[in-house]
């Protein structure tokens, strides 16, 4: 296979010397031996040998030299007679040399221009290499050498995935079948350079097909995004830590009502325990009543431990884990924790979820944080309202505009949002509350957007604000 390496070709004297020896041997044989055959035709071999070391002009020069030697040999050994056999043989040889020279020069010209095009690929900062269907590298540009540390002669002929220790985002066979289906593939890969550095690259593959549509070479272009990825990862970590701090701060605000949520079932456990003892302490123990008391104790104990479990999940600092989750369950989790707080603010909470809603793909704790922020905001917004009941309504339904999303809305009966603030609500540190931090909605937005969703606010015509969170459906499964 022709390999178009743009690397400089090292001149070797072997082939020019061989061509010279062959040319001299033909000249001597043609001049000295009285054979009646067109020996000079063999000069075409010299022209073909020249293809290995000479350029287009060089080949024409060698062909011209061979023609001159043919004529010289004829001039030395024969009288000029246009009708004679030797003259015709000389003519045939000259024609053969001329045709071979012209074809070889044209072929060499094509190769030279291809090599020139290939060398253009050395000018780009992008890493470019070509692999065949067996993943073997056939071309390797200068940027690839600079990034990975392997020179073309070290890389060409090696399997790309082995040489670069590639980590793929999906099984290699799946990527190859997508490439064969669409002719393209894009994604992020992790490569290991020669010196052991791990590199994150944005990779684009394009598949070349032959005349019959069969897959051939694969052109792979890679951009090193390791630095960008590091900054992004740092930003994401900082965002997560901030979200965690805000979550813990919110839980701090709720300490009194959460303590109540735990205390209430514990007090019920004690009361039921005492009642149970009394039923058993009767002259004729009432086992049925005692049993009912114990069952109540178990139920209340479970409720207390459920509150603690949710509390621990919310305060724990852990990486997000995305899984199909029911938004109705998320709302119930939060309602259990803030029920007492809502009561304290004379707020009632109504939750309505459409039947058979699909699940969304998300991190349960993060989504709880979003819902908690929205409910607390609505509750606080209604604090100064005395004209109408403090009612918070959560509705969960399939989105009318985006069929592949579920929308959760939280409506309150507060003063609504000042139209001048509508555009800034989700900015960090935007707050109109005296003791507010202005981080709740900004954190909620980053969480929702990291889930591939959207969050926005509107004012209700009948008064109050409505916050909408739209999240993509995980899969068509009934919640
Ligand atoms: P904070 O609650 O600390 O102020 P947020 O980011 O949660 O921070 O909210 C930012 C601002 O958005 C609030 O100060 C308030 O002006 C406005 N806001 C949020 N929710 C509501 C709501 N339900 N009704 C009216 N205004 C709201």
Automatic annotation (TrEMBL):
Keyword match Kinase: yes
Keywords associated with the record: ATP-binding, Kinase, Membrane, Nucleotide-binding, Phosphoprotein, Transferase, Transmembrane, Transmembrane helix, Two-component regulatory system
Listed InterPro entries: HATPase_C_sf (IPR036890), HATPase_dom (IPR003594), His_kinase_dom (IPR005467), HisK_dim/P_dom (IPR003661), HisK_dim/P_sf (IPR036097), PAS (IPR000014), PAS-assoc_C (IPR000700), PAS-like_dom_sf (IPR035965)
Annotated ranges, domain PAS: 113-167
Transmembrane regions listed in the UniProt entry: 12-29, 35-51, 58-77
PROSITE patterns per UniProt: HIS_KIN, PAC, PAS
PAC domain mapped to chain residues: 183-237
GO molecular function: ATP binding; phosphorelay sensor kinase activity
SUPFAM superfamilies: ATPase domain of HSP90 chaperone/DNA topoisomerase II/histidine kinase, Homodimeric domain of signal transducing histidine kinase, PYP-like sensor domain (PAS domain)
Protein name (Swiss-Prot/TrEMBL): histidine kinase
